[in-house]
Amino acid sequence: MVARSDALMMSSLAPHRRAGKGTPLVLVHGFLGGAAQWQAEIEYFSETRDVIAPDLPGFGDANELHGCDRIEAMADYVIDLLNELEIGSFELLGHSMGGMIVQAIAAKIPDRIDRLVLYGTGPLGAMPNRFETIAQSRTRLLADGVETTIRRIGATWFVDREEALGLPVLTRIGERASPEAALQAFDAMEVWDGRCSLEYLFMPTLVLWGDTDRSYRWSQIEVLWQTLPNASLAVIPGSSHAAHLEKPKLFHAILEDFLSG
């Protein structure tokens, strides 16, 4: 394993970023994301925690790996990395597609998860009432390519759309994804349904949502909040799907309050 100054660590199994010491906190990115999107969270939480942010196969610094066409396979990929790092119990956060992945992880190894954060996500991968259907996004990705797709879709993740200060950051990260992995991710989301597992996830869970999110609408958030046995809800006003970039101080304060509870 090689440590670098930007907190990137290259595992023989999976590229990831890691910093700090203490209770492990695992951050899982979503579609066209990467571990680099969590840099502010790594810096903030590494003062009290061992923060680990993997790059999913085909994305970010793992863009040379073959992608996965099932959410469960991505969950296994993250679990394998944590096992290789000899991580026992941990806190777990997933964003967007990453929120689906962490639900699958929680269903597979519930006894190892101390606290769970489901951020800007839902229990149904088809995403009812999304700004466009998965099929439409797939067609446009095939026609436009990854670079155009991340700029177009990424703009929907912010209240200020194309003028959002955080958009260039997400664009640079998203452009690194392999087209194959992006298409496989659409396949994985389209067929995934985690609703049957929710009632069995007893760990303390925070459902965290930006109030103008156009990808995961309130109906998805409400199902998580009302079905999970030990869930609390936090809504970040004036933010969308990338609330961690739009309202970072509030985002961190909410997470700190929950993780320290």
From TrEMBL:
Occurrences of domain AB hydrolase-1 (ranges): 24-248
Q: Which GO terms describe its molecular function?
A: hydrolase activity
TM segments?
none
One Pfam annotation, family name? Abhydrolase_1
Alphabetized, the UniProt keywords read:
Hydrolase
Would you tell me the protein name for this molecule?
Alpha/beta fold hydrolase
Organism for this UniProt entry: Pseudohalocynthiibacter aestuariivivens
